[in-house]
């Protein structure tokens, strides 16, 4: 439980850093403000998780440390070059990560399950991202192929770094996945189905 909260907390902290930087890629102040609000939500989620960890007698810094290199590597290797790549990363990249963490959270006891679920489903900006991507595709249909390739790269990098996370932790997350004899193939089918639906909603191809 503590390890999972630490992983989610560090993900939220990095998401804040990334979105705050990516907001500068926005083509106008309205869009810049929207991504800045996303960043504010992420740091709020981090603070909530850090407070819970402290209440549990854990040091947030120490609990997050094992995941630092893997998550930082993911963001370093998927740095967006423009506004549309930034929006796609916030929508598609974070979406598949949140789905996976949500699956693990379902194996926690209450109230920790609901805590993680609340944080991961703070997705008020999904509609904003979809609208941005679809509007860009309407102006130039070639954008769909470029962003579809970018989304596939995001997923590939996320899966690669997930292996590093599994190797870095103390076995607790692996045990959590295996708890209650989880059907791993079914788990990945659900993740794939969610990802496919997310891509389709934005007008992108798998």
Automatic annotation (TrEMBL):
InterPro entries: Ferritin-like, Ferritin-like_SF, Ferritin_actino
Cross-referenced Pfam families: MiaE_2
Domain of life: Bacteria
Ranges of residues in domain Ferritin-like: 2-179
This protein's name: tRNA-(MS[2]IO[6]A)-hydroxylase (MiaE)-like
């Amino acid at each position: 439980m503590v390890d999972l909260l630490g992983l989610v907390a560090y993900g939220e902290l990095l998401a804040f850093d990334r979105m705050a930087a990516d907001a500068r890629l926005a083509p106008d102040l309205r869009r810049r403000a929207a991504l800045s609000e996303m960043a504010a939500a992420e740091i709020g989620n981090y603070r909530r998780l850090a407070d819970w960890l402290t209440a549990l007698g854990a040091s947030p810094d120490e609990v997050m440390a094992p995941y630092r290199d893997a998550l930082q590597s993911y963001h370093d290797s998927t740095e967006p070059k423009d506004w549309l790549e930034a929006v796609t990363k916030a929508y598609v990249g974070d979406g598949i990560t949140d789905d996976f963490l949500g699956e693990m959270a379902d194996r926690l006891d209450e109230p920790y399950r609901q805590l993680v679920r609340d944080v991961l489903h703070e997705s008020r900006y999904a509609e904003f991202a979809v609208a941005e991507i679809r509007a860009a595709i309407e102006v130039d249909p070639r954008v769909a192929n470029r962003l579809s390739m970018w989304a596939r790269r995001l997923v590939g990098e996320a899966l690669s770094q997930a292996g590093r996370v599994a190797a870095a932790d103390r076995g607790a997350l692996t045990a959590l996945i295996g708890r209650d004899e989880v059907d791993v193939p079914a788990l990945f089918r659900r993740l794939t189905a969610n990802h496919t639906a997310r891509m389709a909603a934005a007008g992108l191809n798998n």
